[in-house]
Amino acid sequence: MHDLPACGSRDVLKVLAKAGYVHVRTKGDHFIMKKPGAFRPIPVQHPVKTYPKFMLRTLIREAGLTKEEFIALL
Questions:
Q1: 46 neighbors 25 (Cβ within 8 angstroms)
Q2: Bridge partners (DSSP) listed for residue 27
Q3: 30 close to 20: Cβ distance less than 8 angstroms
Q4: Distance between CA atoms of 50 and 1, rounded to whole angstroms?
């Protein structure tokens, strides 16, 4: 299984955009991303230089992606 690379908030936002998510609104320092047909939006804290691995795994899981799909979209 692949290990996750170090990713910041810009990387995560780009991957989510490639996966079909769009920026809906901003609340404080969080960008709220929503995909048409998705159950709930995903809040992405911005700016973050490097996300901790556990937080990155949570964002990937909430987006409905696998680690391999996430790395391929990077």
A1: no
A2: 30
A3: no
A4: 21
Q: Which domains does the chain have, with CATH numbers?
A: 9-73 (3.30.920.30)
Residues near 68 by beta carbon (within 8 Å), at least 6 away in sequence: 2
Query: Per the confidence metrics, is the pTM higher than 0.70?
Result: yes
What pLDDT is stored for residue 3 in this prediction? 86
CA-CA distance, 18 to 28, in Å (whole number)? 24
How far from the centroid of its chain's Cα atoms is residue 24's Cα? 14
Instruction: Indicate the residue type of 48.
Output: V
Mean pLDDT of 36-65: 92
Q: Radius of gyration of the chain from Cα atoms? A: 11
Q: Provide the 10 A C-beta neighbour count for residue 66.
A: 13
